[in-house]
Amino acid sequence: MFSRISKAIKAFRERRFVIIFSDNENEADLAIPAQEIVAESILFAARVASGLLCLALPKSRLQELEIDSLPS
């Protein structure tokens, strides 16, 4: 397990996506640090993941940006 976490941290430092798999939900997510997002990252994620693009922000910031949050 530690090896996987180390590899994920290394990938983040190299500005690469990591795949996070959930056994409970039987699905996988792509993750990348928000400060590394550029247009090419969004296009890549939309092309290969074919799903929702999500961003974790505090509620106060969502309100400032007038973005509706998804229900938990």
From TrEMBL:
This chain belongs to the protein called 3,4-dihydroxy-2-butanone-4-phosphate synthase
InterPro entries, alphabetically? DHBP_synth_RibB-like_a/b_dom, DHBP_synthase_RibB
Recorded hits in Gene3D superfamilies, A to Z, give:
DHBP synthase (3.90.870.10)
Q: Which GO terms describe its biological process?
A: riboflavin biosynthetic process
From the UniProt annotation, give the residues forming the signal peptide.
Answer: none
Q: MF terms per GO, please?
A: 3,4-dihydroxy-2-butanone-4-phosphate synthase activity
